[in-house]
Design a protein that fits this description.
DNA-binding; 186 residues; Tetracycline Repressor, domain 2; mainly alpha; homodimer; Arc Repressor Mutant, subunit A
Chain lengths: 186, 186
DNA sequence: GTCTATAACGTGATAGAC
DNA sequence: GTCTATCACGTTATAGAC
């Protein structure tokens, strides 16, 4: 019931959001000006702010993370480490680039808040109830941290060696370590 | 020949660097203005730029990373995962906060470059020659990625659950996974 | 002649008037 | 909704002090 009005203002808002997502993803938060977004969407710079309040909030609202990430942690726990690593390395997850942009812009308060919530909500919490054994909640959060590590290598600090390594080699090593974090100790 | 001149300009430069490091660490890159740094150092805003070229380059030059991080990866490989995790969690590493500031400001080109080089040089390369078995270089880089993961939880996205968890619990789980990455597979 | 201070410029986000 | 003003900030031009 929320999505597709044919209001003019909703169409404009969607156009701005689409332009913003595209430009932020391609160029990052700093390099993308409100004027660039407005021009791309074919509107006046002022209405961008009028609709979204600020460039920061527009950035946050232009990310449609949940839809893209939910599938990542589905499927059997026993092979989750490998599957997640493979999915990330293959780069089909088109959410990865803008996630990198979010981290690199997390000096901004609103973006930092959103990053914080996103990582916990998307990568840790879905696992909490599924994990068995002691420290289940902690291990879910540490799994999330470990995911953030490989994601950072790919789209935050751009480790060429990891980016160009054979996918299955990375899967074998990093996937194995991720899997261990899911496994109760002892 | 390099270090301690008693030149006035060198003293000024050191004062600026010290103020910059302190403020950047406490408030982050965005929230710290050139004027703030200048005021703290007791100099004019213009000479900050004159001495360092730009705010970005000042940030990079105010980090004295190598001195602080070198010790982290020393000692026997067999227990490195645990020891590194414990050292990070105890927060004695006063390099951690400004590392977080660097990641959160890595949307800026110069800072991104420095981050990229730092992670590889400080966390991956020191291990390459020490690791045995296949994919030694890749595993060193993946170990670095994994370190970045826990560091990010602590000072980038601020996962309260990880930050407040018992140190030895985190050491047991994350340290164990780190250690596995160091261990040849098969 | 080098180092420092004052003042101004350019840019970019944002708020208010019409 | 559009246009224009304001404000903050990094940076530079200009010129003075030692």
């Amino acid at each position: 019931m929320t999505a597709v009005h044919t209001d003019r203002s909703s169409l404009v808002k969607d156009a701005i959001r689409d332009s913003a997502r595209r430009l932020f993803t391609a160029q990052g938060f700093e390099a993308t000006g409100v004027r660039d977004i407005a021009a791309d969407a074919g509107v006046n710079p002022a209405i961008v702010i009028r609709h979204f309040g600020s460039k920061e909030r527009l950035f946050v609202m232009s990310i449609d993370a949940p839809a893209k990430w939910r599938a990542l942690l589905e499927g059997p726990l026993e092979t989750l480490g490998e599957r997640v690593t493979r999915a990330l390395l293959r780069g089909q997850h088109n959410g990865l680039p803008i996630w990198g942009a979010m981290v690199r812009a997390s000096g901004r308060p609103d973006i930092h808040d959103h990053l914080k919530r996103s990582v916990v909500a998307l990568f840790a919490e879905p696992l909490v109830e599924r994990l068995a054994g002691p420290d289940a909640e902690l291990r879910a959060h540490l799994f999330a941290a470990q995911l953030v590590g490989i994601m950072s290598a790919l789209v935050v600090y751009d480790d060429e060696f990891v980016m160009h390594a054979p996918v299955e080699s990375v899967v074998a090593h990093y996937g194995r370590s991720l899997q261990l974090t899911l496994t109760p100790s002892g």
